[in-house]
Batch of 3 targets.
Target 1
Amino acid sequence: MSRSLKKGPFVDTPLLEKVEVMNRGAEKKVIKTWSRRSTVVPEMVGHTLAVHNGRKFIPVYVTENMVGHKLGEFAPTRTFKGHTTKTEKAAATAPAPAAGAGAKA
């Protein structure tokens, strides 16, 4: 469910204040934030935000295309290792033949 248009986008107040101070001073430095739930607003465009993913801070350079999305979308929390193929699954589940099992005396 989306947020009411009457309320506007949610942005953590301390984060928004830090961005506005940097805009007034024309500074460009990395802002660390744990607020993955904050929405990207146009004031953030051009800044680099270090978004915490639960383990480390992921630097995210904010562009115009990101406006309206949440910061957490750009800092994945899980590492994707890839899908396995059917041959890899079959080789992993098949038991290895024993050395003396096939020979009869």
Target 2
Amino acid sequence: MRNVLVTGGSRGIGLAIARRLAAIDYNVIAVARRESDELRQAVQEVRESLHFRACDLSRIDAIPNFIRALRGEFGAIYGLINNAGIGPEGLLATMHNSKIEALIRLNVLSPVILTKYVVRHMMAEGEGRIVNVSSIIASTGYNGLSVYGATKAAANGFTRSLAREVGKLGITVNAIAPGFIDTDLTQALTDEARQRIAARSALRRLAEADDVARMVEYLLGEGGRNITGAVLTIDAGNTA
């Protein structure tokens, strides 16, 4: 059973990914600062294939030892899903510098460093799949999300260049760019705003967290073996 590490696995898209992969014979390690009630219930349902391990990924210095411990406990890591992130709204002109720094640290620096220590082992194994969760905001922009958009654009650039670096060693690297999905990050939207977004989407609806989870499943499987360096959009046609 192959090991897959899912960051931000306690809720939203991360939890949907962890649930789906654990149900199809992957051994999933869900990482978050703390275990949510929803994740605890999921672990109890599929105890043998879903595990929670706590780590504050904003503490960059803790990442090397954390990965070393996971390797010692579970063995080789086949898949890495860099999903953890924050997306606070705020105009750049009034956003506090500490909030900007925290956003860039968790959304950019943390996944890059985490990937560094995981991909070393993938290179030694001669296989691996990395999926970075980006956003359509990286390419479309959105009022009040300039810093968040910058971090997701960084994820896309990181994906494409890393795919070039490690492809010859049998490792694929892709990004998924969800549109507006019903998660904690979009709870601030009013029903009217949700309806407007759905109305301008080709399919006249919002995408769901499980849609992203299904794409991750595909990229980890045989179907994704020749897909690398791609940014795959899941937004019900919002950007079509």
Target 3
Amino acid sequence: MAYDLAKISMTALICPAFDAGVALTRLDERIARSPVGAGFLDRQNFADACASLWIDGELVHLEDLVLHDATKDVRTPTHELTIARDVLRTRRRIAAQSTDWALSAEGIRSLRQTSDTNSVGAEVVEPASGVRAAVAIEPEGEGKEGDDAKDLPGVDYAAIDAVLARSEAAIENATRPGRASEADRDALVYDLDWDEDARLDEWRGVLRQAENLPAVLQAIVALDAWNELSVLQHAPWLGRLLAASILRQAGITTGAHLAAINLGLKTIPVDRRRHRDRETRLLAIAHGLLAAAEIGLKEHDRLTLAKTMMDRKLEGRRTSSKLPELVELVMAKPLVSAGMVAKTLDVTPQAARRIVLELGLREMTGRGRFRAWGVL
């Protein structure tokens, strides 16, 4: 079904869209001039990635994502945590590029490949050659004098070679410039009748129809159209990042600031976000953008106050004190573990725990082991 903008009444959307644009601009200006601006943006990326999974019906804890991003996992990463990390990295990638990159043909192609590879997992293609045939293994474990590694008893080298071959094929498939063809996709994972190219072209057509609207209205319509057209099977989260990119391209948000749309939409009841009436959904998105800006302003004020309080504890410290470096780390990350502190400050884990307590950070996990701390 075509997404027709002519049937949308813009009258009810103008006021909340205008308010959202003003609030987002105020937040952007405050971040640009704030001493905690860089730390705020990094925290926002983590929080928005977790909120993105929440909107899609999955739960990812912020502490797990922070530790996973720092390669300090305390348990095996789940599939949902892997997707959250992909959302996080995609946000950083978009923010690091020029403002018009994400919505360009090259940008969408690159981001689409990333979502195909990471959200579902690289398609594993068996190579035509390179796997050795299975050979009989000596049941006795004696071996002969001078045996090398290839003759070790009780080891199935054919199985090992098969695993290595599949891994090499997956890496090659994930790094090749072209996308996997529809025939190469697994029917158990993908709906082969789902024409993503046609849906993406239709979504671009909606963007062309909305190009004369104000930037906030463009983002609202683009996000609703992405959800209604279900452009990508396994990456609904990419549409929300592209909507934030529209705001960035128009100058509502600037620099490295990519609006945390997911944080705002999380506050909107699901029955409004997925309502059958399109105007109700559009209003829900507009209110979500306004909520995102308000949440950001409150979080910025909280971080500014926390930074002021911690700076007071630095007065009178020796120049060799590690506390200033710890303050910078704590302001840059939502949570820090003993391992992260020890690596950044080049101290032992015991010293890391002591200096964390000296700064007066709050333990956030409630665990006896693998603890993490954050600002009050």
